[in-house]
C-alpha cells in the first residue's frame, strides 16, 4: 500500500469489505474472461490488504487504549 502508517486511506474499511465481497461474488459466479478474472483477483488482493490495514490500525488503537487504562490503574 502506498499510504504511510500515519495516513488514512481514502476508502473506509466498510467500503473495502463490501467491494471485496462483490469481487468474490463475481469471481465465484464465473463467466468472465481470463483477463477480467485476473483484474478482479488483483483488485481483491488490494482490497484485502486495505481491510487488513484498517484492522491492524484498530488493533493498535485498542492496544494503546487498554495499555493506557492499565497504566492508570497502578
Estimate the helix proportion, in percent.
Answer: over 70%
Annotation field: number of helices: 2
Number of domains: 1
How many whole angstroms does the radius of gyration measure? 17 Å
Instruction: Give average pLDDT, whole number.
Output: 90
Number of strands: 0
Our measurement of the CA-to-CA distance between the termini, rounded to an integer number of angstroms, reads: 39 Å
The succession of helices and strands, N to C, reads HH
How much of the sequence lies in strands comes to under 5%
Tertiary shape: rod-shaped
Q: Which regions contain 5 or more consecutive residues with pLDDT less than 50?
A: none
- Report the structural category: mainly alpha
Largest sheet report = none
In words, what does this structure look like?
With 74 residues, the chain is mainly alpha-helical. It has one domain. Helix content is 77%, strand content 0%. The protein has helices at 13-29, 34-73.
Summarize the structure.
With 74 residues, the protein is mainly α.
Secondary structure elements and pairings:
Elements: H1 13-29, H2 34-73
Helix pairs in contact: 1-2
Sum up the structure in keywords:
single chain; 74 residues; mainly alpha
Amino acid at each position: 500500500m502506498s499510504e504511510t502508517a500515519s495516513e488514512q486511506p481514502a476508502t473506509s474499511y466498510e467500503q473495502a469489505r463490501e467491494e471485496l465481497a462483490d469481487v468474490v461474488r463475481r469471481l465465484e459466479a464465473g463467466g468472465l474472461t481470463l483477463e477480467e478474472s485476473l483484474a478482479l483477483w488483483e483488485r481483491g488482493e488490494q482490497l484485502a490488504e486495505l481491510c487488513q490495514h484498517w484492522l491492524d490500525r484498530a488493533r493498535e488503537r485498542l492496544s494503546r487504549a487498554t495499555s493506557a487504562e492499565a497504566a492508570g490503574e497502578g
